[in-house]
Design brief:
Radius of gyration: 22 Å
Structural class: alpha+beta
Number of domains: 2
Bound molecules: zinc ion
Number of helices: 3
Shape: elongated
Largest sheet: 6 strands, mixed
Order of helices and strands: EEEEEEHEEHH
Helix content: 10-25%
Distance between the termini: 50 Å
């Protein structure tokens, strides 16, 4: 959804999205079920808009250790400032009146792409360390057996980064 600055009411406008463009085609996760997103936009002078957003969705991602797909509920709230790339946009007094930690995106045109913004936020909300269960046993480095489900007869490899490296060099 594209929102032009002049479509935003002086009192703020709220947009509800139940679909985010290209989200179903991402390589890093599989969309699982409905998407709920809400964005409230408020003008801040001629050249700035503050966005307050919230997204809820479930995705399936692959476990870092055993590669099994598992579901993650993503529920994230965020704030972002959009500023038009113009000389007036960066007068010092304006900048000072904005919270310092507000993430700012500079726009060439007075148009906000809500889908793009929401997609980025989904990525930011995904866990850094992706584990299907705490303490997932992972795959055997030698035979590939899923050690959560089975035991294998391979000689036990010492669990250290160097052992992993040694395996890769073979
Ligand atoms: Zn796992
Ligand atoms: Zn094995």
């Amino acid at each position: 959804m594209l929102v032009r600055f002049n479509e935003i009411s002086p009192h703020g406008s709220t947009f509800v999205l139940n679909e985010i463009r290209e989200l179903a085609e991402q390589q890093d996760f599989i969309l699982d079920g409905p998407v709920t997103a809400e964005c409230t936009l408020k003008r801040n002078g001629e050249s700035k808009v503050v966005l307050q957003g919230r997204i809820e969705l479930t995705v399936q991602i692959a476990c870092d250790r055993c590669l099994r797909l598992y579901s993650v509920e993503v529920c994230t709230e965020f704030q972002q400032l959009f500023a038009l790339d113009s000389d007036e946009a960066w007068q010092v007094k304006d900048v000072e009146s904005m919270p310092a930690d507000l993430e700012t995106e500079i726009l060439d045109e007075p148009v906000i792409d809500l889908d793009d913004t929401l997609r980025q936020q989904v990525y930011l909300a995904l866990p850094v360390k992706k584990l299907c269960v705490t303490g997932c046993a992972g795959l055997c480095l030698q035979c590939g057996a899923n050690l959560n489900e089975t035991t294998c007869t391979c000689e036990k490899v010492v669990d250290s980064p160097f052992a992993v490296l040694a395996q890769l060099k073979k």
